[in-house]
Amino acid sequence: MFTMSAHFRILCGLCAVLMCSGILVVDAFSQTITLSPDPLTLVTNTTGNMTATLSVAAPVGGTSLELQATGGVTVPSPVTVPAGETTITFPVTAGAVGESQIIASATGFLGDLATVLVVEPSVEISCDEASRNVAHAARAYTKAVNSVDRLCRNGGTGECITALSQTTAAINALNQAHEVMLEACQ
Predict the structure, then answer these.
(1) Which residues share a beta bridge with 25?
(2) Which domain holds residue 143?
(3) pTM tops 0.90, yes or no
(4) Residues 132 and 172 in one domain
(5) I need a surface site. Which of 7, 19, 71, 155 has the fewest CB within 10 A?
(6) pLDDT (tens digit per residue) in 39-87
(7) At 85, which CATH number?
């Protein structure tokens, strides 16, 4: 058995680990950082804002937060929550389309991770074009349903499952086309 006469505190990113007399005790940080919104959705090549909130007010001199971004976004780092405050808002700049993560950390705090979704700019379409897209999607759905009927009656299980998955994709496309039409035809 491993025995220690002194107490040692080892800080890792998420918790404090205390070793005493061979007993391991995990003591979660009571001070936390929360990032919001989560997720943040941005269009490519635009900038939006995210807020870091501390569970306790920053002391004299403020609390310095290290920010890290993965993927196609950039953030400033470090940022400082002013003394007596609990929040700081910082810019998030979007690059390439995709999903990215922002990680906030500070000494003595449990950090947080937030997702940033970067999307293409939306393209405005006319109500007539949106209606044509719904009609096309409806025809594709009808064709998929007819395939399910035929293949599930006459084909094997594998063919039936394939046809069902095509029907699911077709109904999803129809629903999406319908949503676009409702927006375009307002």
Answers:
(1) 18
(2) 127-184
(3) no
(4) yes
(5) 7
(6) 998 989 999 999 999 999 999 999 999 999 998 899 999 999 999 999 9
(7) 2.60.40.10
What is the secondary structure of 31-61 as a DSSP string? Answer: -BEEEESSSEEEETT-EEEEEEEESS---TT
Residues 51 and 10 in one domain: no
Checking if the pLDDT of 123 tops 80, the result is no
**Of 101, 95, 90, 91, the residue nearest 119 (C-alpha):** 95
Q: Report helix, strand or coil for 83.
A: coil
* 114-118, 125-129, 147-151: least confidently modelled range: 147-151
Q: In whole angstroms, what is the distance from residue 60 CA to residue 114 CA?
A: 27
Neighbouring CB atoms inside 10 A of 16's CB total 14
Pairwise CA distance, residues 98 & 72, whole Å:
7
For the chain, the maximum distance between any two Cα atoms, rounded to a whole number of angstroms, is 79
Query: Cβ of 99: how many Cβ atoms within 10 Å?
Result: 13
